[in-house]
Amino acid sequence: MSIKAEYLWTDGSQPTAKLRSKTRILAPGTAADALPTWGFDGSSTGQAEGGSSDLVLTPVFSCPDPLRGGEHLLVLCEVHHVDGTPHPSNTRAALRAVAERHEGQEPLFGIEQEYTFFEGARPLGFPEGGFPAPQGGYYCGVGADEVFGRAVVEKHLDHCLAAGLGVSGINAEVMPGQWEFQIGPLAPLAVADHIWVARWLLFRTAEDFGISATLDPKPAKGDWNGAGAHTNFSTRAMREGYDAIVTACEALGAEGKPLEHVRAYGAGVQERLTGAHETAPWDEYSYGVSDRGASVRIPWQVEQEKKGYIEDRRPNANADPYVVTRLMVDTCCTALEK
Ligand code: ADP
Ligand code: MN
Ligand code: MN
Ligand code: MN
Ligand code: MN
Predict the structure, then answer these.
(1) In what order do the strands lie in the sheet with 38-41?
(2) pLDDT for 198-222, tens place per residue?
(3) CA distances from 82 to 40, 52, 58, 77, 307 (A)
(4) DSSP letters for 140-201
C-alpha cells in the first residue's frame, strides 16, 4: 500500500511560528532514511514573497503516524531556500551547530509543555458568560467538576506513545482546561523535534473532538495561571556532581544572560513572568532549591543527592524549543567547559 507521509514544518507567523503540514503519497516500502525533500509555497506561510515563493522541506525526523496507522508517517522538516541554505525561520539549523559543539558534555532536556483547551472563545470548563470556581482544586484533579478534556488528553498520550515520542508523563494543571505533557529526558535536537511533533498531534487530536488547543502563555486574564514550558536541563557533569549544578545556575545569571534568555523564551513572556502565579519577575534573575518563585529551580532531591538537573521555569508555553535548548546549551555548556 502507498504510504501517506504527513510533512510538518514551522512557518513564518509572527510573533510565534505555527505548525503547517501537508500530505505526500510515497511508494510502498519507502524507507524512513530515503524520504524525499519536497517544496511548498512560502508566500502562503509568511516565509517568502510571491515573486520567489518556492521553499524546500528537508525531512529531519520521522515516526509512525498514529492517526492514520499502518505504514503511514509523520515527517518533521527543516525549511531551506532552493540553494540549500537555512531559511531565517529555520531555528533548528542553529541548534544543530551548537548541540554538535557541546555533544561531549552529553546535555539532556526534559520539557514540560503546558497548554489550554478552548471550546469556541472560552477555555474548556469556563461557563458561558462567567467564571468557574477559583483555582485550587483543579491541579491533578479528578471528577467532572474539576477536570475538562481528559478524553482528548488520553487520546493524545496514546498517539504520542504510538508514534514513539519520548513522552514521560501528563497532568491536569492549575487552571481549568489547562494541561501538561512532558517530553524527555532527551538530547537537545531530539527533545525539540519530539515537542514539535507532540504539539502537532495535540492540535490534530483535539480537532477530532471539535476542541482547539492553544499554547497562549496567558489564555485567561486575571487571577488564572499562565502556561509555561519549564525546561529541565543537565549535562553529564551535572548528573555526577553539585558544583556543575551551581555553575549552570550562575551561568544563566551572568551579566546580560537573563535578558538574552527571557527575550527568546516566547512572545508575551513579560505578561506571564509577573512574580505571581508561581513565576519570578522577568527582569529579576534568581535560583533556589525547591523554589517555584525562582527563575531557575533546583529540585529538592537534586540538592539532597548533590547531583541531577535544574529547571528553568521561564520559557513560555509558546516558546520555540529549538531556541530555548540552543541558548541553554550555549550558556551552560560554555561555562561548564571552563
Ligand atoms: P515538575 O515537578 O516541575 O512539575 P515534572 O515531573 O513535570 O516536574 O517534569 C520533570 C522533567 O524533568 C521531566 O520531563 C523529566 O524528563 C525531566 N528530567 C528528569 N531528569 C532529568 C535530567 N537528568 N536532565 C534533564 N531533564 C530531566
Ligand atoms: Mn496549489
Ligand atoms: Mn510539571
Ligand atoms: Mn506545570
Ligand atoms: Mn515544572
Answers:
(1) 19-26, 3-10, 73-80, 54-64, 38-41
(2) 999 999 999 999 999 999 999 998 8
(3) 11, 10, 11, 14, 46
(4) T--STTT---HHHHHHHHHHHHHHT--EEEEEE-SSTTEEEEEEEEE-HHHHHHHHHHHHHH
**Alpha carbon nearest to ligand 1 atom 11, residue:** 110
Altogether, the residues listed in the chain come to a count of 338
| C-alpha to C-alpha distance for 160 and 154, rounded to whole angstroms | 10
Whose C-alpha lies nearest to ligand 1, atom 18?
Answer: 110
Cell match 470556581: residue?
133
Specify the higher pLDDT residue, 338 or 184.
184
Helix (H, G, I), strand (E, B) or coil at 14: coil
Distances (CA, A) of 235 to 101, 226, 307: 14, 29, 10
CA of 90 from ligand 2 middle (Å) equals 23
Its pTM surpasses 0.95: yes
**Is any ligand 1 atom within 6 A of the Cβ of residue 166?**
no
DSSP 120-136: TTEETTPPTTS--SPTT
Residue 254 to residues 144, 257, 303, 331, Cα–Cα distance (Å): 47, 5, 21, 9
**The three grid cell numbers given for residue 37, joined into one nine-digit string:** 525533500
Q: Which residue has the cell 487571577?
A: 223
Residue 265, classified by CB atoms within 10 Å of its CB into exposed (0-12), middle (13-18) or buried (19+), is buried
The answer to whether 328 and 312 have CB atoms below 8 angstroms apart is yes
Does the beta carbon of 182 lie inside 6 Å of ligand 1?
yes
Please indicate whether residue 178, judged by its CB atom, sits closer than 6 Å to ligand 1. Answer: no
Question: Is any atom of ligand 1 closer than 6 Å to the C-beta of 186?
Answer: no
Rounded CA-CA distance 53/45 in Å is: 10
